[in-house]
Specification:
Blueprint lengths: L11 H33 L3 H29 L1 H21 L3 H29 L5 H26 L4 H22 L6 H12 L4 H4 L12 H33 L3 H25 L5 H14 L2 H6 L3 H18 L1 H10 L3 H32 L1 H23 L3 E2 L9 H9 L5 E2 L6
Antiparallel strand pairs: 1-2
């Protein structure tokens, strides 16, 4: 007699930590590149235009990686894609460490970007699909803490090696390589997403559930998915521009506009980073409750409003501190974390990473275009540059409010139901939305 041993499901918090390292690496790669490029500019004689090109290349790589990685994650599964992408990051970061010239650095930066971008949607889907309605927002919020951790890791390294010349830049790139390698090894034992496997089985056997039937890109262009799809694209694309500017160019702006040196800039940023973890934990406590949107409104006002300190007060050490504190608080409740939760809840399983990949692609393309001109624009008139950033944020938040005010759709609540029943209910005006309630 053969005994069948039930498959053991991994702890969702463990999955959240390991898969969430994609967010760590994303943030760490962007911020490390900003510091390392500033160092390489002095050590290897790069021009401002080359710094802008390399920064833009990283963002473009992330964008196209997400565009192709999302559909691959839906077609072949989450596990295979995020294993390959980690290997790409390891190889690309190693090439950045030893790059002898700008062309080699540029190519390796593109490779890191492609791997990071392709990893983001499949990693977030893995987290969401291993969780429950009671803890999904919290565990996705944990990935946002890891995103903050990536910033901290880069700033810590920069504060230590910022004045070491080229060796300092090599260490900045090298830390990304090491973290990616460790993450790859930790991910190998994690099995494929059970939700994705169930959706694929239902699709292959002809079972008419929502997650089995709604599997084409055209699904995203029809109700009820079109509105959140458009809202998320515009929201994330526009609000990400000032965030990406801060991630890639904080060191450059502090050195070239305010007059700090690299090490002081990194240490000053590092002193404020513990608050980022505090805000992240706060977000995890409220994201699965009805307080999600009130906090979003408050966060949006702080995130966009902080830049007026630069516009009105000028560029000084004190204004950098004030902007960083207020903007960081706002972003905890009205940027990356809530975007990740909304993207998981809004789309069916077999197009979930495709939708996310498209959203990230558009956002990073817009950010890449902005990054390519940021050094020149800031050098010309920093106040005008930040007025443009504020305008982007305000328009982005307007689209987010349009798409997600009131009750919010949670696809996990309906996608296991029969497609015909859900379609008939939708035609009858039934709204498959949920208002998160506190868990007692």
């Amino acid at each position: 007699m053969t005994t069948i041993t039930p498959r053991r499901h991994p702890n969702p918090w463990f999955v959240g930590v390991v898969s969430g390292m994609a967010s760590y690496i994303d943030a760490c790669a962007i911020v490390s590149a900003g510091t390392a490029l500033t160092i390489y500019q002095a050590a290897l004689g790069f021009t401002d235009a080359q710094v802008g090109l390399a920064s833009s290349a990283l963002t473009l790589g992330i964008a196209f990686g997400a565009l192709f990685g999302g559909p691959l994650g839906d077609r072949f599964g989450r596990k295979h894609v995020f294993s390959v992408t980690m290997l790409m990051i390891v190889v690309g970061a190693a090439c950045q460490v030893f790059a002898p010239s700008f062309p080699v650095l540029l190519v390796s930066t593109i490779l890191v970007g492609l791997g990071t971008g392709a990893d983001l949607p499949v990693s977030l889907a893995t987290i969401a699909e291993s969780a429950t309605d009671e803890n999904r927002g919290k565990i996705i919020g944990l990935s946002n803490l890891l995103w903050t951790g990536g910033i901290v890791g880069a700033i810590v390294a920069g504060s230590v090696v910022g004045n070491w010349g080229r060796l300092g830049g090599q260490i900045m790139y090298g830390q990304v390589m090491v973290v990616a390698l460790i993450t790859l090894l930790l991910r190998l034992p994690i099995p494929e997403s059970e939700v994705w496997l169930a959706a694929r089985r239902e699709r292959e056997s002809g079972v008419g559930t929502v997650r089995a039937e709604r599997v084409t890109v055209r699904t995203l262009l029809k109700p009820p998915y079109l509105k959140p799809f458009i809202a998320l694209i515009v929201f994330y694309a526009l609000v990400n521009v000032p965030a990406n500017t801060g991630g890639q160019f904080t060191t450059w702006i502090n050195v070239n506009v305010i007059g700090m040196d690299v090490a002081f800039s990194s240490r000053l940023s590092l002193l404020m980073m513990p608050l980022g973890f505090l805000w992240g934990i706060w977000f995890m406590r409220i994201v699965d409750t009805p307080r999600r949107m009130p906090y979003f409104y408050m966060g949006a006002a702080c995130y966009a409003g902080a830049y007026f300190i630069y516009i009105i007060g000028g560029f000084h050490v004190w204004s950098f501190i004030a902007v960083s504190l207020i903007n960081g608080f706002g972003g905890a409740f009205a940027f990356e974390g809530v975007m990740k939760v909304w993207t998981q809840e809004s789309f069916p399983t077999l197009v979930r990473t495709t939708a996310q990949g498209t959203i990230v692609f558009v956002a990073r393309i817009v950010a890449a275009i902005a990054a390519s001109v940021t050094p020149s624009l800031v050098s010309l008139n920093p106040r005008v540059a930040y007025m443009i950033l504020v305008s982007f944020a305000i328009v982005g938040y307007a689209f987010a409010i349009w798409g997600f005010r009131g009750k919010q759709r949670n696809e996990f609540a309906v996608e296991g139901h029969a497609e015909a029943d859900v379609a008939a209910a939708e035609e009858a005006g039934v709204d498959f939305t949920v208002s998160p309630e506190p868990k007692h």
